[in-house]
Structures are given as structure tokens and as C-alpha cells.
Specification:
The chain is of the alpha/beta class. It contains ten helices and 13 strands. A hairpin with a 6-residue loop joins strand 12 and strand 13. The mean pLDDT is 86.
């Protein structure tokens, strides 16, 4: 979900960007106007996240899922080994993809408890000969987030940060690569980003497919082929908005307040049970299920929730993979705390009214 001011600006400039006489969607990516858009987007990224100078900033296509293959294809060049932590759906997908290209080891997994917690690891758990270690920092489907950054020693750490990026401060210097899809927080679907420490390029000794090579995109400033010009333009405007409200520190403060509203209701309301260990709860993806004693009402509640009108924040939704309900703040960063509170209150009132009718006539 994008800030309304960003959507308004994009709508206003859809026919004529800054007096150029053309839309961003139709201009050449080799034009001076778009090069300025690209440069500003990269500079804003660096400024908002305090990206160190020894990191390259890439805008890529194929979504974050393409990087499941691109990362091992680029980095499995020394021992051919990598260590993965499995904490949810997407780290598992990344692990399975990497297994096609090298000797991939699972360092730790929370699958034993349906990915409801983040395993604790130490430097000694990682293979010092591994070419890289891999985590998914926030887990969309299961509602967990790493409360710490694993210490991997001299092994470069790679992180998928798609669903929590720019929602809170992140020390990029602790990672070899940080990447993700921008459609969660920053832009329309179509562009992914990667922040790559320069020395990681020195590890690429084999010749991966041209479009999968990080070096290809670094050397061509993310314009080896036509980039997704409109999503990059919107991403630039979202970063400008984020900087204008006080940057990552301010959005983190807001996100903590919004998440607390939802978690407090889940913990207070006897209808619900949280599905995640409290210390590992995500600020972006708040998951819960019906309490066992109310299971017989679940079908009624699901029907009731489906009647709720589409809003900019759907407090209650059924997850298509796990059947659990969840609220997603990842795609609603721009919403105020008051808006989240109001939408939650409306949803709960609708739910309560339907339950009262059911209990009256049952």
C-alpha cells in the first residue's frame, strides 16, 4: 500500500512528468530525464537507509523469487557450500532452489513448531568454509521476525527483507547482500532491489547467465536492459515521502504503535490466539487463529469477515496457505495509528454483532 500523497503525485504526472511532455511509462530509459529519476532513487535509498559507500544499489526484475537462484549462481564459487536458516515459506523456497546448485546445509529450522519462532544460533553453528549464509528476516505467512542479526563470523550473510524493508532501522553493514521485492512497502509490483557489498562481486568466478549475474547489473547501473521504469519512479516518490516524515526512525515508531494495537487485542480477546512466540513477533505480519473453545464458530466468523468491505487495511484476512487469519501492516506503512485503530474497531464491532445474532437464534 502506497501513501496517498505518492499516488496523487503519480496520477498528476502520469501524462506529463516535470514538463517533459511524456509519461514516465513511455519515456526511454536511456533518456536524461529517466537517468535523473534512477540516480535520485538510488541516492534516496542510500540516504534513507544510511547505506555505506562500499555497497552497490541495484534495481532488478523478476521479483525477489528470482534471487533464490541468482544468489547461489553468483556466490557458490569457493567451497560450493552455503548455510540456510529455515524460518518460513520463503526461506524454504530459497533453500530448495539453492540445493540445485551446491551443497546446501540447514543450520537451524523452526519447522518443528510450524515456524512459530526464530531459532537461536551462534557463530559456531555456521560452517566457516561456507560461501555465504542465508536468512529471511521477516516471515510474511507465519508472522515472525528475527529479533537479532545472526553472527556468521567471516561468512557473508544474505537476507531477504521483502516484507519488513524500511519498516525499522537496519544496519546494512552486517550483511553481504540485502534484497527484496519492492511491492510490499515501496512501489507497484515489477521491481526488486539488491544492496550488494562490493567485495561480493569478487566472489563471482564462474559465468552465470547474463541476466542473473550481479556484475552485469552493477556495471550497467541496473540498465543492462529496459528497467521497470514506472515502479522505479513510484519507489523514488515513496522514499521522498518517507524522508519527509522523519525517515525510518519515525516509521518504526508508528509501526510499533500499530502492531501493539493489534497484538494487544489478540492477547486480550478470548476469541483469538496468537500463533507466534511473543519475542519473535513480526511488526509487519500479525497472525492469529480462533481459540479452541470457539472453533465451532469459525465458519460463521469467516463468512462475517468476508462481508467486510475492502479497505485500505483489512484487519482480518484468511491466509491462503495456512488458513490462519492475519493483519498485514507491511503493505500499509503509510496508515496512521488512528486509522488502524478505527478499522480494527469497525471489524470487531461487525464480528460482535454477527455473533450476538447467532447466539440469539442458535
Amino acid at each position: 500500500m502506497l501513501p496517498e500523497s505518492v499516488l496523487s503525485r503519480a496520477a498528476a504526472e502520469i501524462m506529463d512528468y516535470h514538463g517533459s511532455g511524456q509519461s514516465v511509462m513511455e519515456m526511454s530509459h536511456r533518456s536524461k530525464v529517466f537517468e535523473e529519476i534512477m540516480d535520485e532513487a538510488q541516492n534516496l535509498f542510500r540516504s534513507v537507509l544510511s547505506v555505506p559507500d562500499n555497497y552497490d544499489m541495484l534495481f532488478l526484475q523478476g521479483g525477489a523469487s528470482t534471487q533464490f537462484a541468482a544468489i547461489p549462481l553468483n556466490l557458490l564459487n569457493g567451497s560450493g557450500k552455503a548455510d540456510y536458516m529455515l524460518t518460513g515459506q520463503f526461506s524454504t523456497k530459497a533453500y530448495k532452489e539453492a540445493c540445485k546448485y551446491g551443497d546446501i546445509r540447514v543450520v537451524a529450522s523452526s519447522k518443528d513448531k510450524t515456524f512459530s519462532y526464530i531459532p537461536e544460533v551462534t557463530r559456531e553453528d555456521f560452517d566457516p568454509e561456507a560461501d555465504y549464509a542465508y536468512i529471511c528476516l521477516n516471515n510474511t505467512i507465519y508472522g515472525t521476525k528475527f529479533p537479532y542479526i545472526p553472527d556468521t563470523g567471516d561468512v557473508p550473510l544474505v537476507a531477504d527483507v521483502s516484507s519488513c524493508f524500511l519498516s525499522e532501522p537496519l544496519d546494512v553493514s552486517k550483511f553481504g547482500i540485502v534484497y527484496g521485492g519492492a511491492q510490499k512497502n515501496l512501489a507497484p509490483a515489477g521491481v526488486a532491489f539488491a544492496i550488494i557489498r562490493e567485495d561480493m562481486l569478487d566472489r563471482i568466478v564462474r559465468d552465470p547467465p547474463t541476466m542473473m549475474s550481479f556484475r552485469t547489473h552493477v556495471e550497467n547501473n541496473s540498465m543492462f536492459n529496459t528497467p521497470p521504469v514506472f515502479p522505479i519512479y513510484v519507489l523514488k516518490e515513496t522514499l521522498k515521502w518517507l524522508k519527509s516524515i522523519g525517515g525510518v526512525d519515525e516509521i518504526y515508531r508508528r509501526n510499533k504503535e500499530k502492531a501493539a494495537l493489534l497484538y494487544d487485542e489478540i492477547d486480550r480477546n478470548p476469541l483469538f490466539r496468537g500463533t507466534v512466540e511473543k519475542e519473535d513477533r513480526s511488526l509487519m505480519n500479525i497472525c492469529f487463529v480462533m481459540a479452541p473453545e470457539y472453533k465451532e464458530l469459525e465458519a460463521l466468523i469467516n463468512r462475517t469477515l468476508e462481508k467486510l468491505p475492502e479497505r485500505r487495511l483489512r484487519i482480518f484476512r484468511m491466509h491462503r496457505f495456512e488458513g490462519k487469519k492475519y493483519a498485514e501492516i507491511a503493505s500499509s506503512l503509510s496508515l496512521s495509528v488512528k486509522t488502524v485503530e478505527a478499522e480494527m474497531t469497525k471489524a470487531l464491532r461487525t464480528l460482535r454483532d454477527e455473533l450476538e445474532i447467532y447466539m440469539k437464534y442458535d
